[in-house]
Queue: 2 jobs
Job 1
Amino acid sequence: MLVSSSPHIRTKETIESVMYAVVLALMPALLGAIYFFGLRALFLTALAVISAVLTEYIYQKITRRPITALDGSAIVTGILLAFNIPVNSPWWLPVVGSFFAILIVKQLFGGLGYNIFNPALAGRAFLMASWPSIMTGRWSAPIRPAGSTMSGIDVVTSATPLGVLKYHATPEVVAKLNSGPMLKALFIGNTGGCLGETSALLLLLGAIFLLIKGIIDWRISLGYIGSVFVLTGIFYLFGITRANPLFHILSGGVMLGGLFMATDMVTSPVTPLGRWIFAIGGGVIAVLIRIWGGYPEGVSYSILLMNMVTPLLDRLTIPKRFGEVKK
Amino acid sequence: MRTFRGGVHPPERKELSKDAPIERLPLPEVLYIPLSQHTGAPAKPLVKKKDKVKRGTKIGEIQGFISANVHSPVSGTVKGIGPWYHPLGKKQDVVIIEVEGDEPEEGVGEERDVDKLSKEELVEAVKEAGIVGLGGAAFPTHVKLSPPKPIDTVILNGAECEPYLTSDYRIMMEMPEKVIEGARIIKRILEPERVIVGIEDNKPDAAERIKEVAARENWIEVVLLKTKYPQGSEKQLIYALTGRQVPSGGLPFDVGVLVQNVGTCVAIYEAVRYKKPLYERVVTVTGGVNEPKNLMVPIGTPVKNLIDYAGGAKGEIGKVIFGGPMMGLAQLSLDVPVIKGTSGVLVQLKQEVFAGEERGCIRCASCVDVCPMGLVPVMMANVIEAGKHEMAEKLGVLDCIECGCCAYVCPTKRNLVQYFKYAKREIIKKKKKG
């Protein structure tokens, strides 16, 4: 008879069940990407996934570690990395990005659970630093442009709504950006941008599934997206940003970042208060970069910066225990 | 609905045994009665080899303040005293009795007029009967009934939040009067302002039975609690019913509360009213047995007798657990005896035994969300792994109630409770050394 410590029953939840649930939750956005940007979106995502899984497999094989390349976490990294590049990137871009994300950011830090930075975001930052012209200069408009939304705006050189806001914000353009049709297009996802970030609707659909399953924490998503909304709302009232807060949370990477990147369990704090600070801090940094930084978008750097303080936040936000009262 | 923060919802599996009325287990041939079945000092043996004993004969005597008497459940002959399998793991001294019959000791079963006994006599009767908490912790009841601080609230614990177990349920269904009479005795001793029975809302019929009897009294409240593990844990139960938090390192009396399991109430009543020592108890035998049952079992009966009487195991036995699946103790041998704290015997077949390997933490923080003590299990486990026990103590590992919620939900199957038990032991050992 086996003698081992209690509890003698466990839930069926495993690393695999968690990671594949995240994969599943990313499928609506992937299908959306294919719909909005064409089959090349699928092609690039597949390359990113294959590169991520193979890198993990080969690294673990060479270093004689247990092979966990198919535990789902590398697949998640691959998909998220692909979601962060433009659809007309060259084929090798996702391959290199995933390779960097898995080898340098994840495995060299000790593998799943030990990495400090979100691998997909750090991979994206690496690609941004190495090939900035591809990462920001080659936007393609969606293959089914939503009629009037971008008409009159120069869609050739910088087709992302955030780029337009940053570099081409004439009064007529600003009025268009804040208009109902534009916000609707942003919500649906029919705008320029990285291939997986454009559809708030489809990202929310997947995220709701993960929220119900308890895999992502509502505090982080609400804290991140909410702080972007509140802060840009204040700035909008004071005329510091000319786009309204709805535009700010629906454009760029706020949804993808707030729902799927900041919520990465490995690189976010484990305490409830730590998660609030992490999320709100991230949202604030993203807004500051958008408004005063050199880039039109600040989501990825905001989360990477907060990743760095995660261990500190954990230590500083240990919750009050039950019974921690005066005797 | 009243409850506490955190907790989990494991499959209840109470349907296996909940409708089986309490049956008396036929007398076994030999009993192995441990002298230590309670928190505190072991009882001092009062018998020697070849002595004759009867049902209710005191065979072990209280030693020190926190200890309890031990009685024989049968008439028979002492075959010896020596080490034997014990549910807590290490072998311990037992009195081995060859069973001959059911002849009672003089005075056992004699009716007393409860109202004529003074408070001191009531506590003395409980002490004499060797009563300990029957919920599992087996703390001597007479000590609990002599609190150093005034008690304003007495809680009867009918939560029975461990999956599978139905012994308290059957007690509430079959003998609600005795539960209430036991409570009346506690009330007389402690004179609290409130007496509350807390029952999880997955046992509405048991609550109904208790309510029927309680309706004749004006001093007892029956409150339904949300079904959530560990609702029956003392601190969580007190919080759910009174909003009071037992301070870290403190005991219920620090917040003016006393908690007694409903089964213990029955034992108290029978001890006071009928001079019946605690020599038998209700045990749920369930899981992978052919006929799950609730049995009245003489203390000292080897567990194999219970499993056989429940129709035997359905397949190859993988684990035998004393208690429920969340906090119960896995047993080494089928010869281990039932003791006063044994609320259930859960048989897990080989294929049902959890045998997953521990993997690296992915920081999902599920353990943080479920910890009913508001601890951060992941951080405690990490510092314990690194050998930093002082850090674990600062993080509150001594407050851990070992309920198992954290390990239950962990997707990487870390043996979190095992870490905490180990660290607690080491920290306490070090403290004792000075």
Note: The first helix of chain B runs from residue 119 to 128.
Job 2
Amino acid sequence: MNWVGFGTLIKREVGRFFSVYRQTVLPGLITSALYIAIFGFTLEQRISEIQGIPYTLFILPGLIMMNTLTNATANTSSSMLQMKLLQQLPDLLTAPLSGLEISLAYIIGGTVRGMVNGILVLFLGMILIGMPVQDPLGTLVFIFLVSWAFSSMGLLLGQLSESWDQLAMMQNFFLTPLSFLGGIFYSITMLPDWAQTLSFINPIYYMINGIRHTILGVSDSDVIISYVMAIILTIAFTLSSILLMNSGRKIKQ
Amino acid sequence: MPSPAIEITGLTKSYDGTVHALNGVDIQIKRGEFFGLLGPNGAGKTTIINILTGLVFRDKGSTKVFGRDTVKDYRYTRSKIGIAAQEFSVDWFFPIEKLLYYQAGYYGIKKKDAAPKINDLLERLGLSKKRDARLRQLSGGMKRRFQLAKALVHDPEIIILDEPTAGVDVELRRDLWQYLKDLHKSGKTILLTTHYIEEAELLCENIAIIDEGKILKEGAPKTLTQELGTAGITINISDTNIELEQFLSNYKYTLDDNRLHFSVTDPDQALPKIIKSLSEAKVHINSINSSRSSLEDVFLGLTGKGINE
């Protein structure tokens, strides 16, 4: 194991997004604040409590999850694609670093960004509307697992994409709809039966309900299933991204 | 006997199964040698380099660095190589000094250990005033020097330079040549790809001429020009009525008015003999012109086309 090389790449990946924090950290915080202000405060007067929870509070765990997973995905996918398109990747591929080291360093970089963004929205909720957190450790575990899983998925997307257009397509047509349909703004009990059934095959549904359970103590799905799903996703995406990196597909000829 | 710095045997590579980039390449580069790969664009030079450094998968054959396989022992072989790629990389995020620290880190060198080398490289390559600049703020020549600094930051034993002076002005090219000579004197093995004939002749101890994925000829530049190049000697004589045939029967020559034109492989050796023969024939010589053969002539003779075609 090339520990110094591995550590250097992690530092580079974390340093990269912090150097443009206005683009990678602040927007999620501002967007979440806007969601709370617009969706929460205005709709709360018209929507009765969901599962005994005021509407603004109900949507906050979903906002934390959405912010976490979109940032984790964006970090690895954009960094990898940028390195490919701007001829930076050969610097890594010609260095004495293994595919495992490169993959894990990227994933850790994305995980840090996902966690920073998720935790900031968590604090925002606690400060703005006094959100109680019933199980802080469980909340952090969920934010960590989701960050890791989606950071790995982002790495897969970044390696497979050949243009910004392709990457944007995967995010806009796949990730964003799944996030919105995962129950950020509603309980799936409010949906017709067929839509409820569809939600069960959406992995993000389990992530949102998992963190909602750790924060508010309510959820549509069993929290154990949410944990299991988060762990399965984490392992599956991690292994896939390492295997893809080792195969050299789309990055070597 | 120590294993060669680079040993390539029977190397083949095709892209998409149709474009045959390499068709059985054999190259051996001794430790401490300055070796040039000379060929036109698309000849296979960059593919060889990319296979050695792990950017391209080889189809068949073996590639070894200091006797160790570049695929199985990639950590060892890559740590021995520093590569200055032809294409510039672009990084928007970090100043160039930081990029050099990152590059050293990838090779397992901690920041405090890398500092003296990085300071030295920035100074030597005239980049110390630009250490806080981003890559986009550098001129083309500075970017080229940064590429070299990046290749040298982990003090590799083998330096691979892919068209290191492509697109740089004459002054910088001379500076870079001098620096490469200094590196070679310090014991580094250097593999240079170029399509500048002058560069190969000036710097390389040995060269391989490559075209369409095959090594056509290998040897010292001077040997190759002597063996394969054709030089010309033109002698103006005053009297054309003398029977020259019996004195010049060993040479290929033409007589045009009073101009005798000889085609020889080595003008340094041939000229004194020709003069002696003409003296024996009692021919009065008015003037002598000779044109040395160059690698360009060799390349032309081997491939039937110019190197920039």
Note: The interface with chain A takes residues 15, 50, 53-57, 74-76, 78-79, 81, 83, 85, 87-91, 93-94, 101-103, 105-110, 150 of chain B (CB under 8 Å).
